[in-house]
Design a protein that fits this description.
Layout (H helix, E strand, L loop, with lengths): L27 H12 L2 E5 L3 H6 L6 H15 L5 E4 L2 H4 L2 H18 L2 E8 L3 H12 L9 E4 L9 H10 L2 E7 L6 H4 L7 H12 L10 E5 L6 H4 L11 E4 L8 H8 L6 E5 L1 H4 L5 H15 L2
Parallel strand pairs: 1-2, 1-8, 2-3, 3-4, 4-5, 5-6, 6-7, 7-8
Helix pairs in contact: 3-5, 3-13, 6-7
Length: 300
């Protein structure tokens, strides 16, 4: 098994189950929990914004995406529990951009790095089944270890993805409480029985099917939501699944802020930093230094 620069063994995201599609793959939640324990609770977002590509001296095209993505992966693979490519920034380049994303997902699997496809998919019936098939089915070129989902057509509309993820040993992260100002107009509705609280409760119920230390149905909760969890009476610790917390670094949240925000649920939290780390490129050394610095802020 290949080792990172510190001499630690690279982790296998399929945990001994062989190549993607192997029968008996360890559930995603258990694999992510092990990676967080071994490496720390950091997910690095791979967001190839046009301005970032330009600052790296790269063209805003598929080849620029490919160079950007593979460089970030090379830098953070020994350090981060997961990476999170922002799907929209690949889609904007059409089929060539999606090909670059497919290459990143394949390279990540080869390197033993867990992946979260930030696609935020959500629909009903056969359309939702199609999205699930694209992002979670063994053999799909876009299959990631997990995918972000939007539940705002009703949590149960996500059933095709929830069931396929469980069957394939993959995971999902369901949008629950985001920190954008507009989010409160939907997520906070209902007060003590808010939309966000009902999504959290539904995720907790879904994780009852998982017997390991961490379920495979995670939530997306912004690192900068402030007192919203307390205000809405939301108990994230009861979810027993991973909490993906974007907003670390450039968006203003610190490790101390996150410990205060998430309280007893902090051991479940996977802090996500994108621009705060990516701005340190294009050198691999610079990206690694920024990743190590960010990890240090997340330590308990």
């Amino acid at each position: 098994m290949p080792s990172d620069p510190a001499g630690r063994a690279r982790r296998d995201p399929f945990d001994g189950a062989g190549a993607p599609g192997a029968v008996g793959r360890t559930p995603f939640g258990e694999r992510l929990s092990a990676a967080m324990e071994r490496l720390g609770p950091l997910c690095v977002g791979i967001d190839p914004h046009p301005a970032l590509l330009a600052s790296w001296g790269l063209a805003d095209n598929a080849e620029g995406l490919r160079t950007f993505s593979q460089t970030v992966l090379e830098a953070v693979a020994p350090l981060a529990a997961a990476i999170k490519p922002q799907v929209a920034l690949y889609e904007r380049h059409g089929s060539a951009g999606l090909a670059a994303l497919e290459e990143l997902l394949a390279s990540s699997a080869d390197a033993g790095v867990l992946t979260i496809a930030d696609a935020k998919r959500g629909d009903i019936g056969s359309t939702m089944a199609g999205y699930a098939d694209a992002w979670l089915r063994d053999g799909s070129a876009l299959a990631a270890d997990s995918v972000t989902l939007s539940p705002y057509l009703g949590f149960e509309s996500l059933r095709p993805a929830l069931d396929l993820a469980a069957e394939a040993g993959r995971g999902v992260f369901v949008l629950a409480l985001t920190s954008n100002p507009e989010g409160a107009s939907v997520q906070h509705v209902g007060g003590a029985e808010s939309v966000a609280k009902r999504i959290v409760q539904a995720a907790a119920a879904e994780n009852l099917r998982y017997a390991g230390s961490m379920g495979s149905v995670g939530l997306v909760v912004g690192a900068t939501v402030g007192t919203a969890l307390v205000d809405l009476g939301i108990d994230l610790a009861a979810v027993k699944g991973p909490i993906l917390a974007p907003g670390l670094g450039a968006q203003g949240a610190t490790g101390a802020d996150m410990r205060a925000t998430f309280g007893d649920a902090y051991p479940l939290v996977l802090g996500t930093s994108s621009r705060g780390i990516l701005a340190a490129g294009p050198s691999v050394a610079g990206l690694r230094a920024a990743t190590v610095e960010t990890l240090a802020t997340l330590a308990l």
